Structures are given as structure tokens and as C-alpha cells.
């Protein structure tokens, strides 16, 4: 019996004694914070194991020595004040012992002050964008695992789905502050070796920090389900010495200058169709195939097919424009700051001639540079004023910053004019046209472009009680939102004319066909 007891105790104590060596245990990491988290984890583990050993030890001892076959008779009692006090006080003390180091560690994890370097991390479907503050350096980091490995035509490499074309380079022994946000949906930047895992939310900035102790390559992934290619969004960090990092900064700045010069020179170059198609296919497979598929067929209802599409078959300038500026209210990103003029020209040429489109069009870098920055959705028959784009198209170029600032000022002026304009009545078709644009920009992300929503989080607007009910109630929920739900107030976001238009659109789109035409004057009196 004693041998059996010894075996049981050995089994109970073994996990405690060898937990730090187990391959399934938490890794210690390469930062001070990750080390503190690991130590805290081990202390809590030991406490839990000790509690388990005591509790199960008493149970096993009682079952062996107080079993019925040995003539044991169960005691008959109900309450014991001493026992109740004991099992209340002891867990309380244990929790306090665990809470003190845990609180200190959590406070340290959330303290990004006095950083030596600040980097903005922006997630988008499905890539990471890194911007080094005060260094004028930024780049996109994309998965570099060959497609042949992904589809199974080649043997998977050592770092399958955990390799990128441009890793984030950081210095050791310097405190690095991260500012994290997103361009579309919620992502999460996670590198286990740093003990950093922080959500990147659209419209918000989250902070985190790290100080790496030793050089090396550290890998992570997006840890938030962010769409169909969530598993193809790796993170690779190269930690280098401080001297190597300073040298890398100089190299990157020189490469940016060389790229700018090369892009300017490319404006005067004319590539052949074969050259454009070869380069365009490479760009398409790296940047566009995740959504529109390698064969251009897309995912109907989510990502449109490019085979014979109106954009592909239409004017080349509209095609260039939507690649440059994206399409608000959809998943189509703007590639203005992601690709050079030559790369955009090549991918547009490829799309217009691949998969049987065979337009015969060849787009050159000079065509992209002289394209208008007005979104394709707003192009009409009126003459447009062309704006020359910088050749390299990086967001940090002074020309681009000035252009963006000018456009922002113009947008602000238009907004002021809209807000102070007389609230005249619009025709039904004018309300529907304006309402559709407002809906796609502000509402489609939740309620979907087809109005079907994502029940139960975002209700369908097709035949819904709100849309079919009184106009006043519909206006009220759009203007003031609905507490306790994801429905926000749009009173400070949209003008009365826009509010009236989007309500009109919702009441007449997707087969609702109410015939109601809501005017800006109807909006007055509904804002709380």
C-alpha cells in the first residue's frame, strides 16, 4: 500500500518538478516583461499544483485508510465554524499572494512611456504596415511563402506561413513603443517571444511596448479572426544590435531615395506588353489574388470577378483610379501608397488582358502618374482637373502630404457648405443616389451592401420593422443610435441632407419599396 502511495505522489509531483522543461509549457521569451510573465505563470502553476496535491492527497489518504472494508464508520456532523473560517481565509490569502505580483506585471506591461523608438503598426486584409516615427521610413510586410507550397505542389518549408518579404527590424536594448490600429477589421499583433499581443481596431489606437534582450528572428501571427486569409498574415521581427539598426536606417533611407529616382526615370520608359504582363502577374498574385483569386474569378457577393467586369472593360483611367484610390464602403483598398506607378501600370495591364479579357490595352507609368485622384465612383461627364501624382507614391513624400492636406481642407470646406446650405427638397432619384453613397460609406460594414446584415449582431434591413415602420422612428434610431447595441448615433457624423437621403435609401432599397421620400426638413427635431 505504501508503494502505491509513493507512486501516486511521484505522479503528482513530477509535473511540478519538470514543468519548466516541458515543450508544451509557456516559453520564457526574450524580453524582461516576457520573463516576468513566465515567472508569474510558473509561480501560479506551482501554487495550483500544491493545492491539487494537498486536496487530492487528503482525498486519496481518506479513501485508503477510511474505507468501509476496514470497518470505518462515517462521522455525522453538519456545521463547523472553524472549518468555514479556514476555507474562506486560506483561499483569500492565496489570492492576495497571487494578485500582488500579477498587478505589478500588468502595470509594467501597459507602460510605454520613455520609449526610444515609436512604430505605428496598421493591420489590413491581409498585411501589416509599419511606419517608423521620426525616421521617414515605412513599408508593407506581406506573406512570402510560395504559392506552390500553399496549394501543395511543393514541400512545405521550415517557416511555412511564417515568413514575409520585409520583416520589422528593431534594435535590442532600446524601448520600442508600438501604436496599433487597423484600416478595415479587427486584427491582433502577436509575437509570443515579446509577450506582446494587442488588438488593432479600426478608428482606435492601442499601445504596447517591448525591449528585446538578444538579437534574433522572432515570429508571430495575427491572433484575431480577420477574414478568409487570416492564416496568411504572419509577423516576422529581426532584432539586431543598436549599431546594425542605425546602419539599417541609413540603408533604408538611401534605398528610398534610389527608389524615388528610379520611379521618376520610369515615367519616361515604355514597357512592352510582355514586360507589363510578366511584372503585372507577379504583382497581382502577391497583392490581389487573395481577394480576386489567381484566376480572377473572385468570390461573388464579397469580391467581384475581374473576368469581363465593367471596370476591366471600361475606360483604363477608371480602372487605374480604383486601383489607386480604392472604393469606399467595400473591401477594395487604395494602393496609392503601396505600389509604384510602374507596378500599378503593370497590374492594370495584366488585369485588362488576362483570363480572356484580351483588351489589348497597355498602361504605362506615365498614364498612372497623370491620372486623377478623384474616386472612380464620382466620375461623371463633367471635365475633371488632373492632379499629377508623385512617381513613387509613398505616403511620407512631402508632395503627397501636401496633396492630402489640400484635399482634406477642400473636404472640410464642402462639409461646412453642406451643413450651412438651405435644406431644400430633393427628388426621389436624387435622394436614392445620395443615400446609396452614404449607406455604402457608413452603414454597409455592419448591415452589408445588400442590407441583409449579420444576424443577430447586425439586423437585416430587408423588410425590418424599423424600415417598414413610421419614418419618425427610423429617423430617430439613425440620428440618436440605440443604447445597448452596436447601432451608433450619426447626428454628429452626417448632415441633415445625408441623414434624410440614407433613410430614404433604406426604405426603398432591396425590395422595401416604401415610396417614402424623406427630406432634410424632416430631420429637424429628432436629434436629442
Automatic annotation (TrEMBL):
GO cellular component: plasma membrane
Domain of life: Bacteria
Main enzyme class: translocase
Organism, as annotated: Shewanella halifaxensis (strain HAW-EB4)
Compositional bias (Low complexity): 383-392
Pfam families, alphabetized: COX2, COX2_TM, Cytochrome_CBB3
Free-text function comment from the UniProt entry: Subunits I and II form the functional core of the enzyme complex. Electrons originating in cytochrome c are transferred via heme a and Cu(A) to the binuclear center formed by heme a3 and Cu(B).
BP-aspect Gene Ontology terms: ATP synthesis coupled electron transport
InterPro entries in UniProt: CcO_II (IPR045187), CcO_II-like_C (IPR002429), CcO_II_C (IPR034210), Copper_CuA (IPR001505), Cupredoxin (IPR008972), Cyt_c-like_dom (IPR009056), Cyt_c-like_dom_sf (IPR036909), Cyt_c_oxidase_su2 (IPR014222)
Cofactor notes: Binds a copper A center.
UniProt domain Cytochrome oxidase subunit II copper A binding: residue ranges: 114-251
CDD domains in UniProt: CcO_II_C
Entry-linked PANTHER family: CYTOCHROME C OXIDASE SUBUNIT 2, CYTOCHROME C OXIDASE, SUBUNIT II
Keyword Repressor in record: no
Record-level Gene Ontology MF annotations: copper ion binding; cytochrome-c oxidase activity; heme binding; oxidoreductase activity
Catalytic activity: 4 Fe(II)-[cytochrome c] + O2 + 8 H(+)(in) = 4 Fe(III)-[cytochrome c] + 2 H2O + 4 H(+)(out)
Protein name as catalogued: Cytochrome c oxidase subunit 2
Keyword Iron assigned: yes
Gene3D superfamilies: 1.10.287.90, Cupredoxins - blue copper proteins (2.60.40.420), Cytochrome c-like domain (1.10.760.10)
Subcellular location: Cell membrane; Membrane
Family, as annotated: Belongs to the cytochrome c oxidase subunit 2 family.
Amino acid at each position: 500500500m505504501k508503494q502505491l502511495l509513493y507512486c501516486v505522489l511521484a505522479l503528482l509531483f513530477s509535473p511540478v518538478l519538470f514543468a519548466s522543461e516541458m515543450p508544451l509549457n509557456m516559453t520564457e521569451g526574450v524580453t524582461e516583461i516576457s520573463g516576468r510573465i513566465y515567472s508569474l505563470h510558473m509561480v501560479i502553476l506551482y501554487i495550483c499544483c500544491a493545492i491539487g496535491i494537498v486536496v487530492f492527497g487528503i482525498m486519496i489518504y481518506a479513501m485508503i485508510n477510511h474505507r468501509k472494508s476496514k470497518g470505518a464508520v462515517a462521522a455525522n456532523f453538519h456545521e463547523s465554524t472553524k472549518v468555514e473560517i479556514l476555507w474562506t481565509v486560506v483561499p483569500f490569502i492565496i489570492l492576495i499572494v497571487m494578485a500582488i505580483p500579477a498587478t505589478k506585471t500588468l502595470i509594467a506591461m501597459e507602460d510605454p512611456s520613455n520609449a526610444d523608438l515609436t512604430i505605428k503598426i496598421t493591420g489590413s486584409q491581409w498585411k501589416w504596415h509599419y511606419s517608423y516615427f521620426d525616421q521617414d521610413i515605412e513599408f508593407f510586410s506581406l506573406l512570402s511563402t510560395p504559392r506552390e507550397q500553399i496549394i501543395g505542389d511543393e514541400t512545405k518549408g521550415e517557416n511555412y506561413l511564417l515568413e514575409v518579404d520585409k520583416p520589422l527590424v528593431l534594435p535590442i536594448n532600446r524601448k520600442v513603443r508600438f501604436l496599433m490600429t487597423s484600416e478595415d477589421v479587427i486584427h491582433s499583433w502577436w509575437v509570443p517571444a515579446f509577450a506582446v499581443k494587442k488588438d488593432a481596431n479600426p478608428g482606435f489606437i492601442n499601445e504596447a511596448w517591448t525591449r528585446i534582450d538578444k538579437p534574433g528572428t522572432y515570429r508571430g501571427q495575427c491572433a484575431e479572426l480577420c477574414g478568409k486569409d487570416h492564416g496568411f498574415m504572419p509577423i516576422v521581427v529581426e532584432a539586431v544590435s543598436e549599431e546594425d539598426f542605425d546602419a539599417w536606417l541609413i540603408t533604408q533611407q538611401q534605398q528610398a531615395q534610389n527608389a524615388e529616382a528610379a520611379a521618376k526615370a520610369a515615367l519616361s520608359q515604355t514597357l512592352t506588353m510582355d514586360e507589363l504582363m510578366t511584372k503585372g502577374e507577379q504583382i497581382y498574385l502577391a497583392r490581389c489574388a487573395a481577394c480576386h483569386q489567381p484566376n480572377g474569378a473572385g468570390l461573388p457577393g464579397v469580391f467581384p470577378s475581374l473576368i469581363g467586369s465593367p471596370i476591366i472593360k471600361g475606360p483604363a483611367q477608371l480602372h487605374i483610379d480604383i486601383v489607386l484610390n480604392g472604393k469606399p464602403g467595400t473591401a477594395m483598398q487604395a494602393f496609392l501608397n503601396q505600389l509604384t506607378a510602374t507596378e500599378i501600370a503593370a497590374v492594370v495591364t495584366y488585369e485588362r488582358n488576362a483570363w480572356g479579357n484580351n483588351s489589348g490595352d497597355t498602361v504605362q507609368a506615365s498614364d498612372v502618374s497623370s491620372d486623377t485622384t478623384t474616386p472612380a465612383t464620382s466620375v461623371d461627364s463633367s471635365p475633371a482637373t488632373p492632379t499629377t501624382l508623385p512617381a513613387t507614391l509613398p505616403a511620407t513624400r512631402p508632395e503627397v502630404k501636401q496633396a492630402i492636406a489640400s484635399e482634406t481642407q477642400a473636404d472640410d470646406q464642402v462639409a461646412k457648405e453642406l451643413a450651412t446650405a438651405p435644406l431644400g427638397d430633393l427628388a426621389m432619384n436624387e435622394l436614392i443616389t445620395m443615400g446609396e453613397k452614404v449607406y455604402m460609406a457608413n452603414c454597409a460594414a455592419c448591415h452589408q451592401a445588400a442590407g441583409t446584415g449579420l444576424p443577430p449582431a447586425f439586423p437585416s434591413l430587408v423588410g425590418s420593422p424599423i424600415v417598414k415602420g413610421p419614418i419618425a422612428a427610423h429617423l430617430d434610431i439613425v440620428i440618436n443610435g440605440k443604447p445597448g447595441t452596436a447601432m451608433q448615433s450619426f447626428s454628429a457624423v452626417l448632415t441633415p441632407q445625408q441623414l434624410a437621403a440614407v433613410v430614404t435609401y433604406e426604405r426603398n432599397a432591396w425590395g422595401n419599396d416604401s415610396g417614402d421620400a424623406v427630406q432634410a426638413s424632416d430631420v429637424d427635431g429628432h436629434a436629442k
